[in-house]
Every structure is written in structure tokens, then in C-alpha cells.
Write a structure and sequence with these properties.
- This protein has 244 residues and is mainly β.
- It is 4% helix and 48% strand.
């Protein structure tokens, strides 16, 4: 059975113009997923985590994020990763919708983080993301890297887009668990092993590590989604030449 939540099933209880609701509970122990929104003209002050990564996908709306000594304009699909323990504020000039991943860090993760990581806070609009090609994608499918391997502990993230027939057809990857956030304009399906469901904007799904899966659209549809992955193994999750 596919773990997923439809956009219309997510209830948001606004307090002072800000709301967020946890979804897909208990599918994976170290990652919490939230859907949230901020009303036009309001500020949001998200919870601060000292030993977790807070990764926010800003999927609709405009505004800005203000940190201690930096500010970032939100004018398109954008991604923000907070610095653990550091407060920040999100202001909405139009209503903002976001999906947030809170990734708990084990003591070993913290040791790795303290040795090496990208500079945080980190902000990336989709127009500045690096485009790449992957063999499991059909011709004409575009892919962008948001977060590459080993830059932030066990986290990976990207965006996939395909107009018309095509998308991603992937053999199971036992190293990583995967979440999918369906973006505006998409009309597509998700297949995991032998089960297929429709996916529309705002839906969120989860694919257990190791299961074959596809995210694709028909000739009149559109594939457009964010994928977020987390290595399931705490140590030695990326091994170079393991049989050498």
C-alpha cells in the first residue's frame, strides 16, 4: 500500500496567520513532514531545532525570509535550509504555501555535520539550481539538483519536470527512502511496485527504500514534483569501490 496524503485532506489551523500540520506520520523514524501556509501580510516564526535540519520547500507565494544577518527574496519555487539553533522569520507578501522536512540528527550525524556541511542558512531559487540528466528519466524530462550527496548529512533533494508523456521510471534504491511533493500544474501518477495512484498539486507521498517506483504522466498530463531522499544507513552510507 502506498503511503500518501491528498492536498485536500490536509487541515491547516491558522493562528496569527500561520499554520502547519504534520502529515505521513510514522512512515520513517527520523523525518517529520509538515504542510504549512502563511497568510498575505503575516509573519511566521517557525520552531527552532538545535539537533535537526529544517528544510523548507516554498512552493507557492511570494515574500522573504529574514535571518540574523541575511535576507532572501521568495519570488518563485525556492528552498530554504535553516542553520540549526538559529531563529528566522518568513514574511508573506502573498499567501505562501510550503512543505517542510524536519530531519532529526543522531549523535553520529552531528559529528559528521560538525566535520563538513554546506554553509547555512542555505537558500536556492529553482532558477539558480543546477540541471542534470539521469538515465531513469524519459527524453525531454528536466531535472534540477537542490541538495546533492554528502553536502548535508544524509539528505538529498531535487526537482523533476516533464510536459506530456514521460517522467521517472526507477528501480528500487535500497540506500534511500523517498518523499515526493507534487507541484502546481502537475497531473500525473505514482506507481510503487504493482499499485498506482493519481497525484495532483499539493499531494505528498512516501516510497519505502528498495521498492520499484515511477512518477509519470500521460500525453495530456504533466510530471512536476520535488523529491526528497534520506539515506537509511547511519554510517558508511556512501561507499566508494566497496568490492575493490
Amino acid at each position: 500500500m502506498i503511503d500518501f496524503v491528498k492536498n485536500e485532506e490536509i487541515n491547516l489551523d491558522f493562528q496569527n496567520g500561520f499554520a502547519q500540520s504534520r502529515v505521513l506520520k510514522d512512515v520513517y523514524p527520523l523525518v517529520q513532514v509538515y504542510r504549512g501556509a502563511i497568510w498575505k501580510g503575516y509573519n511566521a516564526y517557525p520552531e527552532i531545532y538545535a539537533q535537526a535540519h529544517q528544510i523548507i520547500c516554498l512552493t507557492e507565494g511570494t515574500g522573504y525570509i529574514e535571518c540574523r544577518d541575511k535576507a532572501y527574496n521568495i519570488g518563485e519555487l525556492s528552498f530554504f535550509i535553516a542553520n540549526p539553533g538559529e531563529p528566522f522569520m518568513i514574511h508573506a507578501t502573498t499567501q505562501i504555501t510550503f512543505t517542510k522536512f524536519v530531519v532529526e540528527l543522531t549523535d553520529h550525524d552531528m559529528a559528521v555535520f560538525n566535520d563538513f556541511h554546506i554553509v547555512l542558512p542555505y537558500f536556492l531559487p529553482i532558477s539558480q539550481a543546477q540541471e542534470y540528466w539521469q538515465a531513469c528519466k524519459t527524453p525531454g524530462t528536466r531535472n534540477w539538483t537542490i541538495l546533492s550527496a554528502k553536502r548535508l548529512n544524509r539528505c538529498l533533494m531535487g526537482v523533476v519536470e516533464c510536459d506530456g508523456a514521460g517522467g521517472t521510471f526507477e528501480k528500487g534504491h535500497p540506500a534511500v527512502a523517498q518523499w515526493n511533493v507534487i507541484l502546481k500544474g502537475a497531473d500525473m501518477t505514482l506507481t510503487v511496485e504493482d499499485e498506482t495512484i493519481s497525484q495532483r498539486p499539493g499531494d505528498i507521498s512516501y516510497v519505502t527504500a528498495g521498492l520499484d517506483h515511477s512518477l509519470a504522466s500521460s500525453e495530456n498530463g504533466k510530471t512536476y514534483y520535488i523529491w526528497f531522499e534520506h539515506y537509511v544507513q547511519e554510517k558508511d552510507y556512501i561507499v566508494t569501490n566497496p568490492h575493490r
